Amino acid sequence: MISTDELKNRNRYLNKLISFQDTEPVKVITGIRRCGKSSLLKLMIQHLLQSGVSKKQIVSMNFESNEFIGMSSEALYQYVKDRVIEGQRLYIFLDEVQRIPAWENAVNAFRVDLDCDIYVTGSNSYLLSSEYATYLSGRYVEIKILPLSFREFLDFHKYEVRKITNGLIGDMFHISDQNGESYQLSPLFNAYMRFGGMPGISKNDLGQENASTMLNDIYNTVVMQDILQRKSIGHSQVTDIELLHLIVRFLADNIGNNVSASSMANTLGNEGMLDTDKRTGKPSTHTVLSYIGTLRESFLFYPIKRFDIKGRQYLRTLGKYYIVDLGIRNFLLGFRERDRGHAIENLVYFELLRRGYDVAVGKVGDLEIDFIANSLKEKIYFQVTENMINPEVRARELRPLQMIRDNYPKIVLSLDPGLDNDYDGIKSLNLIDWLLDDPADQTY
């Protein structure tokens, strides 16, 4: 059914799936195309087979396969029902299910009529938009999958990571290849920053030409299959593909910056790329917001909220966006050193999401905290910078954290934290070590 040789561990996500195995909710796996959703389903199937579930109990369908093109929800229901084994639970895996019109009718019928455990994937957030989610209200759990973490990136490229505790210098990480040859972390981290974490990149060597070809394919797939097909499944259609590309590049070039849709509209209008609103006579902000919405729905860009720490409320002014993968950003803007500070900030944002935090930008007075990370267990404030060596930079990064009067942990992440690892209770940590030191990814 599946080749175990081609599968790489995605322990963080697989463990979540396993924790919901044989429970009522439909397991809905979402994320940008080619980030590993199909492989995660295969990993789950592998787990079931190793746990004693028979192949006959598993129905797996990928709706991007020619085998299922044009299938209706009624045909989907009958296909699955014909494979029911009396007295045995059926495990149903539906990959890219949004390609089936009214798929939710079939899935809901499976729940009602069959003894089954259901897993579905989709590459667009409207998979769970209000009209679809109504059918499954309270009966699904969403598992959001992202491109590879740095730890996963090393694993996919067949590097072994070992954590070593040394009484003189503390904890450190040792990296080696399959032949036991040791490697420095810094060049590998730079490769991750350059080429990103899309799993398909690991199937080629880390050459720019191969990476560019792969990333071009991924980007075009997102645009062509997720955005331009919106009308066919009942959503508003993107009509100006050139304008869409311009907005993508603008957002990619401004990750971590405050972005105003009205200023974007004015800029595009001045360049003759955007029609004016008939009511106001000004470039259409509504169009810009609509196109940004499609990019969010396809999981290419993620917005982040802003939170006033002293006022204890979320703010509606301006907005920030981060791109789901730095490799895609570098493909769009050119593979060259650019805005490294915001790039590592982008990286930290998605690492916090992977670790299960709800993340917001913090405002304290006129200053800004890069990230407030909240979970059911803890709350942590983060600042992100390239280094803590320069006294002016160090003072700038510490100042907002020093203004917060509560006792929650405060951390500065940097590529060069210097000799001091604590500034009056504010921890200064090496960013690469922090990325590697995550229990959910560890296999060492």
Keywords for this structure?
single chain, 444 residues, alpha/beta, Rossmann fold, 3 domains, 8-stranded mixed β-sheet, 5-stranded parallel β-sheet, 15 helices, disordered N terminus
Largest sheet: 8 strands, mixed
Output the structural class: alpha/beta
Q: What sort of overall outline do the alpha carbons produce when their principal axes are compared?
A: globular
Task: Give helix % range.
Answer: 25-40%
Read across the widest sheet, the strand sequence of neighbours is: 10-9-11-12-13-14-16-15
Element layout with pairings:
Layout: H1 11-19, E1 26-30, H2 37-50, E2 58-62, H3 73-81, E3 90-95, H4 103-113, E4 116-122, H5 130-133, E5 140-144, H6 150-156, E6 160-166, E7 170-176, E8 182-183, H7 185-195, H8 208-227, H9 241-253, H10 261-270, H11 285-297, E9 301-308, E10 313-323, H12 326-333, H13 340-354, E11 358-364, E12 367-374, E13 379-387, H14 391-402, E14 410-416, E15 422-423, E16 426-430, H15 431-436
Helix pairs in contact: 1-2, 3-4, 7-12, 10-11
